[in-house]
Amino acid sequence: MRIKENHSVIVYVDDYNMELVKLKNEGIITNRKGIFLHKDIIGKEYGHKIYDTLYRNYIYVLKKSPELIASSLKRQTQILYEHDISFICLLANALPNKTIIEAGTGTGCLTYALASSVLPYGTIHTFEFNQERYLQVKKQYESFYNIKNNIIFYHKDIINYDFKEFKEGTIDSVVLDMPNPWLCIKKFHNLLKERGIIVIFLPCIEQVYKIVDALEENNFCEIITYELINKSWSVIQNKKRENGKMEVSQSVHTSTRKNN
Amino acid sequence: MEGSGEQPGPQPQHPGNHRIRDGDFVVLKREDVFKAVQVQRRKKVTFEKQWFYLDNVIGHGYGTTFEVTSGGSLQPKKKREEPTAETKEAGTDNRNIVDDGKSQKLTQDDIKALKDKGIKGEEIVQQLIENSTTFRDKTEFAQDKYIKKKKKKYEAIITVVKPSTRILSIMYYAREPGKINHMRYDTLAQMLTLGNIRAGNKMIVMETCAGLVLGAMMERMGGFGSIIQLYPGGGPVRAATACFGFPKSFLNGLYEFPLNKVDSLLHGTFSAEMLSSEPKDSALVEESNGTLEEKQASEQENEDSMAEAPESNHPEDQETMETIFQDPEHKGPKERGSKKDYIQEKQRRQEEQRKRHLEAAALLSERNADGLIVASRFHPTPLLLSLLDFVAPSRPFVVYCQYKEPLLECYTKLRERGGIINLRLSETWLRNYQVLPDRSHPKLLMSGGGGYLLSGFTVAMDNLKADTRLKSNASTLESQETEEPAAKKRKCPESDS
């Protein structure tokens, strides 16, 4: 499969430097390895070396995947890491042809993973109340040809949104990553199918207390709260032993089901 | 299939609320305990020290709760409204409470008598409360805890839920972690996302987790795309896969291929004849619906076995499972008229299996798989070193191992091999929380016992094909890496594609 113009690819410099780039014929990439021309990339195969204009260094151009997207967008404010995204997809039953509501869109990392999971005909309805972020992510996804048809972006505050055009009982899951989710829990009860699932991601324990209260008041059942910690290890080769903790990040997930 | 580049098709039908039918696969849930079973009329099922028939489940939707009544029948039970908290008499702390084991006035015999009389669980709990001398002195929280504990013991509420990766992986980790190499469900979640498992991909998997990883992949792919499962021994174990209750159409994209033929496939010495030289092995696959391993497993099974139908000792049940899972068209030897028919059937199945293996070999030989997942009890290094050759460049691979050390070695060997970037060794810890007013705290920290993951991405190997667009001065810089070609060419004459 050849790389095409106007597509977005992952430019891999090294394990800690990856960038999401939209390819244009006249485009140029500048990084610590040198200057790379987009037209040297267009038409090539993924995963092969691409050399800079001086033929001294190379980079790799990779196909997008949820993990690479999350790594390349890390520079922006984000508290959702790859391991959180994976766990959310499992808890929320993000599967082919499902319909999922997400709020807020944020950087779009979670949106990407959810959208990949609901291919080919599922839909992610994703809400973002910040106009700048909404426009930025929407624009970025214009060149994500594989999944753009499976995502509908809303520039709305989900707390105030009336969901008029949504029929009752048509949503499979709701995924929330927002500061005050308890304010909009109530309306999801009708929107969700029987046994529909809500997954809420929260960084603070006080928020967890509030959301669990709200869920119980609104007739949701099977409320479980998890804390997920990721440890990654680095392997130092010449010493042939592992290094130890490199990155420890914590996050809290609450998941619940709609009561019959 | 390139995802949804084309116009999305018609909206998938909303099946409304699915009603459970005879033959469906369900999961029984009581509090936090799960058990996967297949709904079959007049078939006795044991779960949590009770036995009953599942007949009454038919026609209800998932999520319905039932109560076990006398005679083993299930009666649907509506979720009661929690009684409004009347001001209960309660103490302030436990300073005066003596735990002498004598505070309950009802004896075991009394309780048994109540049960025999057919008194409902709720009533029994009420009786226990009234006959406890210390109940009134307990704090409100302690009272809640006491009631909850008694209810758990005497009120048998069972919910019937739909199988899913989430539920089955939690179930297996809790009940039979040894079967899945102690892979905790958050680790499995990582594998699915790191491996970019999604509809339309062509995935290669090698697992010895009773088919749970395979099932999770199939669920994520929704029947779109293809999966080639490499298996050790006589055949793949798919006990867990059956619990998902996938429709038969999902089998169209599922292939299997023996691990012991992989080397010959890589070196171009594989031929169709190699498959038919093992009639014995194939026979084993037919009859045991899996491998010898499974047979051993079912021998150890006690009445509390988790996934009853697939691991049952009854050959008939096994045949039924095989029918549903392996071969959609096949009628099953139940309907065999004579021994001759049976032999013909067997030969037909063997022939079909052989054909499938050849198709799998062809798919593998294209060397353009979209990803590789390895989760087995074997050392990962040799597996990875050979299986990665089947994967296209710029694709993810994930290796699960119960222990960290083999993955460290793997990491090093992969670095030596080259053609791999973004190598990461990771582990997730999981903790669940009890969240109750004034009583919130973590319950259990699960660490280390959930396994480890090594993941990365493939890139084009340097020595297979020198980049022809390279200028001559650059190739001198690369000369070290492109030195191998001659030897490699001799080794694999046909794989130079």
TrEMBL record, chain A:
Q: What is its main location?
A: nucleus
The places in or outside the cell where this protein is found are: Nucleus
EC id: 2.1.1.220
Pfam families, per database record: GCD14 (PF08704)
Q: Which EC class is the enzyme in?
A: transferase
Q: Which GO terms describe its cellular component?
A: nucleus; tRNA (m1A) methyltransferase complex
- Catalysed reactions listed for this entry: adenosine(58) in tRNA + S-adenosyl-L-methionine = N(1)-methyladenosine(58) in tRNA + S-adenosyl-L-homocysteine + H(+); an adenosine in mRNA + S-adenosyl-L-methionine = an N(1)-methyladenosine in mRNA + S-adenosyl-L-homocysteine + H(+)
SUPFAM superfamilies, sorted? S-adenosyl-L-methionine-dependent methyltransferases
User: Which positions are annotated as binding S-adenosyl-L-methionine?
Assistant: 128, 157, 177
| Domain tRNA (adenine(58)-N(1))-methyltransferase catalytic subunit TRM61 C-terminal, chain residue ranges per copy | 58-243
GO BP terms in the entry:
tRNA methylation
Keyword annotations for this protein? Methyltransferase, Nucleus, S-adenosyl-L-methionine, Transferase, tRNA processing
The UniProt entry, under InterPro entries, shows: SAM-dependent_MTases_sf, TRM61_C, tRNA_MeTrfase_Gcd14
Q: Name one GO molecular function term.
A: tRNA (adenine(58)-N1)-methyltransferase activity
Q: Which Gene3D superfamilies match?
A: 3.10.330.20, Vaccinia Virus protein VP39
Alphabetized PANTHER family for the sequence: TRNA (ADENINE(58)-N(1))-METHYLTRANSFERASE, TRNA (ADENINE(58)-N(1))-METHYLTRANSFERASE CATALYTIC SUBUNIT TRMT61A
Q: What role does this protein play? A: Catalytic subunit of tRNA (adenine-N(1)-)-methyltransferase, which catalyzes the formation of N(1)-methyladenine at position 58 (m1A58) in initiator methionyl-tRNA.
Record's family?
Belongs to the class I-like SAM-binding methyltransferase superfamily. TRM61 family.
Q: What is this protein called?
A: tRNA (adenine(58)-N(1))-methyltransferase catalytic subunit TRMT61A
Which organism was this protein described from? Answer: Piliocolobus tephrosceles
UniProtKB/TrEMBL annotation, chain B:
Q: What is its main location?
A: nucleus
Segment Disordered: which positions? 1-20, 69-100, 276-354, 472-497
Kindly indicate whether the keyword tRNA processing belongs to this entry.
Answer: yes
Compartment(s): Nucleus
| Organism domain of life | Eukaryota
Q: Which GO terms describe its biological process?
A: tRNA methylation
Q: Which GO terms describe its cellular component?
A: nucleus; tRNA (m1A) methyltransferase complex
UniProt subunit comment: Heterotetramer.
Give the protein's biological function.
Substrate-binding subunit of tRNA (adenine-N1-)-methyltransferase, which catalyzes the formation of N1-methyladenine at position 58 (m1A58) in initiator methionyl-tRNA.
What family is this? Belongs to the TRM6/GCD10 family.
The protein here is known as tRNA (adenine(58)-N(1))-methyltransferase non-catalytic subunit TRM6
What gene, per UniProt, encodes this protein? TRMT6
